[in-house]
Design brief:
With about 400 residues, the protein is an alpha/beta fold. Helix content is about 40%, strand content about 15%. The strands form five sheets. The protein has a seven-stranded mixed β-sheet with strand order 4-10-9-8-7-5-6, with helices on both faces. The relative contact order is 0.17.
C-alpha cells in the first residue's frame, strides 16, 4: 500500500523506533496506551530543566517569571487548540484520570441522593470508578447505556436513560477498546435538553480528531498529554467557567488560595482554584510543543494516514484463520482489538513481543465492556502518525507465525 503521508520524515524524530527488541526491529502498536515522544518535545523538557527551572507564580526573579510565562503560554495554547473561550476554563491535571476524579469529587459534591449519572458500557475504568464512589457517599444512581453488536452506542437506549433526575452524562469520545467514535455532539445536546451537564473523555480522541468546544458545547472535556506525543503526568480539564466557579476546590494547598488564616480561607480565582501545589510546569511547557507538533502536521492528515493503516491491516488480518475483531462501527478510530480463536490474549501478546511487535493485552481498563462481549480481554493494536505500511506487514507476518502455535 502506497501513501502520500511523509511518514519516514516523521519517524526520524523518534529515536526509539530505530531500536530492536529480541533481535527484531521494533514495531510499536501500543499507541492507545501511550504514544512515543518526538525529539523536539523532549528537547523542550531539557531546556526547561537546564535553563528555566524555578517555581512558578511565586517568585519575582527572572527564572521564576520565565517558567511562569512558559506555563501560561501553554494554557493559552490549549485554549486555542480546543476552542475554549478563556484560559480560566483550562485546568492542568496529572492526566485524564485526575481530571475526571476532580469533576466527580467537586461537581459531584453538589449532587443529592437520588440524582443520576449516565455512563456507557464502553467506558474506561477512569470514567466509571470515580462515579461509583459517589453512590457510596451520597446515594447517587448510575445508569449504563448498552451498545450494538458492532460496538456503536445504542442511542435509543441512551435517550431512554435520560430523565428529570439525570444530572451528569459522562461518555468517551472514542472507545479505547473498540475504536468507536461516539456521536458526542448529539450526546451533549440530549444531555442539555434533559437538564444535565456533559463530560466527554477525550483521551483517545485528542490526537486524532479536531476538537472545538464552541461547536461541541460540552461542559467538561478531559485529555492526557502522553496520548498526543507529549510528556507523561500531564493532563487537561476544560470546564465551563460558570460550573467551575460554582464548584468547591478539589485539593487544598499552596497556589489555590487568596488568603489563609486559622479562622477562614478564601480561594484563588480560576484556573488556580483547582491547581493546588507546585505543578509540573516542565511537562506543561513540553505539552505546548506537542500541540505545536500535531497542529503543524495537521490532525486531519494524521487521521487520514491512520485510517489507511487501519483499513489495510484489518483487511489483511481477515486472511488469518480464527481472527475475531471486536469493534466494527462505521468511522471507527485506528484501533483493532482482536483474538485468535479462543487463544488467551496474553499468550498472543507475549509471542508477538518475541517477534518485536509491541501490542497491548488484557481488559484495557474496561472490564464491564469485556463482560458485555463475553470475553476476559483482547489483544489491541493501535496506530499513530509514525506507523508505516511496513509496520503493518510485519505485524501481519508475526500473526501468521503466531496463529498456528495457538490453535
Amino acid at each position: 500500500m502506497e501513501t502520500t503521508f511523509p511518514v519516514e520524515k516523521y519517524r526520524a524524530e523518534y529515536p526509539i523506533l530505530s531500536r530492536t527488541v529480541y533481535g527484531h526491529p521494533l514495531v510499536y502498536l501500543d499507541n492507545a496506551a501511550s504514544t512515543q515522544t518526538p525529539r523536539e518535545v523532549v528537547e523542550e523538557i531539557d531546556d526547561m530543566y537546564f535553563t528555566h527551572k524555578a517555581n512558578v507564580h511565586r517568585g519575582v526573579h527572572a527564572l521564576s517569571q520565565e517558567a511562569t510565562d512558559m506555563m501560561e503560554k501553554t494554557r493559552m495554547r490549549v485554549r486555542d487548540f480546543i476552542g475554549a473561550s478563556s484560559t480560566e476554563e483550562i485546568i492542568f491535571t496529572r492526566g485524564t484520570t485526575e481530571a475526571i476524579n476532580l469533576v466527580a469529587s467537586s461537581y459531584g459534591s453538589l449532587l443529592k441522593e437520588g440524582d443520576e449519572v449516565v455512563l456507557t458500557v464502553m467506558e474506561h475504568h477512569a470514567n466509571i470508578v470515580p462515579w461509583q464512589l459517589l453512590p457510596e457517599r451520597r446515594g447517587i444512581v448510575i445508569r449504563v447505556v448498552p451498545m450494538h453488536p458492532d460496538g456503536s452506542l445504542d442511542m435509543d437506549a441512551f435517550r431512554a436513560a435520560l430523565n428529570d433526575r439525570t444530572r451528569i452524562v459522562s461518555v468517551a469520545h472514542v472507545s479505547n477498546v473498540l475504536g468507536t467514535v461516539n456521536p458526542v455532539r448529539e450526546i451533549v445536546r440530549l444531555a442539555h435538553e434533559a437538564g444535565a451537564v456533559a463530560l466527554i473523555d477525550g483521551a483517545q480522541a485528542i490526537a486524532h480528531i479536531p476538537v472545538d468546544m464552541a461547536a461541541l458545547d460540552a461542559d467538561f472535556y478531559v485529555f492526557s498529554s502522553h496520548k498526543m506525543y507529549g510528556p507523561t503526568g500531564i493532563g487537561v480539564l476544560y470546564g465551563r467557567k460558570s460550573l467551575l466557579e460554582a464548584m468547591p476546590p478539589y485539593q487544598g494547598g499552596g497556589e489555590m488560595i487568596k488568603h489563609v488564616s486559622f479562622s477562614h480561607t478564601t480561594f484563588a480565582d480560576l484556573p488556580f482554584k483547582f491547581e493546588a501545589g507546585t505543578p509540573d510546569y516542565v511537562g506543561i511547557a513540553a505539552l505546548r510543543k506537542a500541540i505545536d507538533y500535531v497542529e503543524r502536521i495537521g490532525l486531519e492528515n494524521i487521521a487520514a494516514h491512520e485510517e489507511e493503516l487501519l483499513h489495510y491491516t484489518t483487511r489483511r488480518m481477515m486472511e488469518i484463520p480464527g481472527i475475531r475483531i471486536f469493534g466494527t462501527a462505521p468511522g471507527k478510530s485506528a484501533i483493532i482489538s482482536f483474538l485468535i480463536g479462543n487463544a488467551h490474549h496474553y499468550d498472543t501478546g507475549m509471542l508477538l513481543d518475541k517477534l518485536g511487535v509491541a501490542v497491548r493485552t488484557g481488559h484495557h481498563c474496561a472490564q464491564p465492556l469485556m463482560e458485555s462481549l463475553g470475553i476476559e480481554g483482547t489483544v489491541r493494536a493501535a496506530f499513530a502518525l509514525y506507523n508505516t505500511t511496513a509496520d503493518c506487514d510485519r505485524f501481519i507476518e508475526a500473526l501468521h507465525r503466531v496463529a498456528p502455535m495457538l490453535q
